[in-house]
Amino acid sequence: MMTIAKGKKMLLGGKWMEKEETISVYDPQDNSIITTVPKASKEDMLKAITAAEEGAKIAENMPAHERIAIINKAADYVDEKRNLFAETIASEGSKTIAEAKNEVFRCIHTLRVSAEEARRINGETIAFDQMPGHENRAGYYYRFPIGIIAAITPFNDPLNLVAHKVGPAIASGNAIIVKPATLTPLSALLLAEAFDAAGLPRKILSVVTGSGSEIGDVLITHPSIRMVSFTGGLETGENIARKAGLKKLSMELGSNSPAIVLKDADIDAAVSSCVAGAFGAVGQNCLGVQRVFIEKENFDKFVRKFVLMTSQYKIGDKKDLVTDMGPLITEKEAIRVEQWVNEAIEEGASLLVGGKRDGAFYSPTVLTNVPADAKIAKEEIFGPVVILFQVNDLNEAIEKANNVNYGLQAGIFTKDINLAFTAIKKLEVGGIMINDSSDYRIDAMPFGGVKGSGLGREGVKYTIQEMTEPKIVNFKLG
Ligand code: NAD
User: What is the pTM for the complete model shown?
Assistant: First the structure.
């Protein structure tokens, strides 16, 4: 258990601030209080926006070499204190210490890539003379920062998903206000410490802690905010999109990702990829494998091996390096997952393994015979539950995989390049992995979904595109 005796402060408008009203941050494993964070009010959020208006002017005038140096220094800070960062993630969230260490490693990488991309925010010359009558014209466009970005982040990657917004925002000369997840604000505050220690002018970055439903509206509706960069659930995302008005929107939402296992697949490799993809981070992963479609020739073998591997999962203390899976983020979430599974069983699903809850812990669970219209087959479970479906062929698998309102990533296991290309063309997703599950990402690739999985792409370079606008320059020559 990690105990920080004193309450943490938030970085608001250039100052580290306390508030009389606080929010307790719990370790979901034993419900112990780790520390408290300030509970910001609407007035606090307005102060952060006013400061960011000044911060945006400072940021847009900072030369690239200064932005690069600051981001690299922040990355050094995270690297030097990587154990503290990992302990913080593994205390306030669901991740095991091994998963938390990996998130810190990725955060450092995200920041380094952000520093690199800051030197490549380029435009291009335009051939104005392509149009008759425009022979005496010359010009180009360059990209300028859009101003102030509102970043709203979820609990499940409390550090790296904040870095995915802060790194590119600073790299491209914007100011940014982060509203981290209420349940896991500590990692975001530590990242703010890293940028503060690196010498980032303070009004460029605020991390304001508080309840999303109370202070979120002020942030997303304010006319000075030029972009809302949101990562979280579909319902919250739709709610924000309705209210934000004429602003850029980046929406990284959820999914119930499919994996397709064809009859020529390497079954052992497919089983271990899909098990890891389904149960990593307790299934609280936007890329997590939720639905596996297996060609009938392999179904029984796949199921047998999948259930065996799942039943070997070690559930327990997050801080123990041998633990595979810790608790869900709250007991309430574990109860919701239990209810969804029980509802599916009542509707005819068969429980092959798992289905047991102990407080916030829920055992890795495998279902078959789930009716196609059951909630668990359509919605995002966001817990350690996977559904195995038998299919006749690839076409049936693709049709069923697409028959949901999500489309983030997918995986297909096959040795047949033609079948892989059919899946690449027909699956409605933002990314497809061949011979791996949907649960694959590096931080420098374009990442995002279609349908209810979101709008726009993250992945540093692609985030920078979204956080900047082209400005055309045209010379009328004599
Ligand atoms: P959530 O939607 O409940 O909350 C996300 C954030 O929104 C939190 O900071 C919350 O405080 C804030 N919020 C809530 N109501 C708000 C409001 N009215 N106005 C402004 N802000 C508000 O999501 P969560 O439970 O923290 O995270 C899980 C979800 O995030 C899952 O659906 C998961 O798939 C998704 N996710 C997506 C990605 C991706 O990159 N596509 C990555 C991680 C998680």
Answer: 0.97
